Amino acid sequence: MRKILLLTSILTYAAFASPYARCVSCHGANGEKVALGKSKIIKDMTKAEIITALKGYKDGSYGGAMKGLMKGQVSSLSDVDIDTIANQISK
């Protein structure tokens, strides 16, 4: 019974977790940090800039020093996830 409750809790959390949750450790809860001392402060970016950056990281056409790291972070994001992140963070 405990295993079922634990699995249900995990699945519920995963279903409702923000796609931005994976970004918080480097970029901060509100996009206020310079990630690893190299990134832009993403809360200052427009929605269009965030979408362009995330899609570019995903297809390999965007990025500098953190391009490889970011490609791994965004590779599983859907267009809906990208839009959700952009809405949450943008000006």
UniProtKB/TrEMBL annotation:
Gene3D superfamilies per the UniProt record, alphabetical: Cytochrome c-like domain (1.10.760.10)
Keywords carried by this UniProt record: Heme, Iron, Metal-binding, Signal
Source organism superkingdom: Bacteria
Pfam families: Cytochrom_C (PF00034)
Position of the signal peptide: 1-17
SUPFAM superfamilies named among the record's database cross-references: Cytochrome c
One of the record's GO molecular function terms: electron transfer activity
InterPro entries recorded: Cyt_c-like_dom, Cyt_c-like_dom_sf
Cytochrome c domain: residues covered: 7-91
Protein name: Cytochrome C
